[in-house]
Amino acid sequence: MDKTSVGRYLYGQIIDTTMARTLATEHRGIDLVFSVPNALNRYRVETLSTKEPETLEWIDRFRQGSVVWDIGANVGLYSCYAAKARGCRVFAFEPSVFNLELLARNIFLNQLTDRITIVPLPLSEDLAVSKLNMTTTHWGGALSTFGQSYGHDGEPIGKVFEFPTIGLSMIDAVTLLKIPQPDYIKMDVDGIEHLILKGGLPVLRSIKEASIEINDRFAAQAIYAKKYLEEAGLSFKEKRHADYFELHDNPAKYTFNQIWVR
Asked: pTM of the entire structure?
């Protein structure tokens, strides 16, 4: 075996070992295990109970067996929790090619392949071919946007990678893909929440509740998200984020998960 072959073999072994690393966690008696190939994913698992406690509390109120759309599922922490804690049927929308493998691994690790369905496409205002613009290629990364050049705060994103894909509206997801009408919608897509809401009014009119991540400093996002949610007959209940986001002057300080109810 020459040096090149040895190098390829060792590189393959490193990748296999990295992807096989897992970390178990627990929240309110629900045991979960997730793939942790890097520091970012380890952080996500270690802070499951503290990073978005309001999201977990909201999920804990779901009716057993409900249909949930996790829009911007990332690597599936909340999809897995909803499926395990409340027996939900989850449709996990996640277009990042770097997150999809971990999302699939996490669903399998938690024995939830009968409850969680991956939808590897971005949601948007309407059916369109465009690009997913990404600020990172790390496993578990976030802050990407479909078809737009701005991010979670309305400012231009620092794009490092892009690829073309098909985006669809919530209406398309129901009518074309035959995905069941959701009872609950969790949406965290870092900037185009209002566009997705605009393209999904008929779907929104039938849901029970929604959790939408909104940046208070991104005026257009906040104003139009409120407009479309109210047009769908939903009422604002509260907005929350973890207390430690108040300690530092960073974008997360102005970003909240808004809960809307019928």
From this structure: 0.94
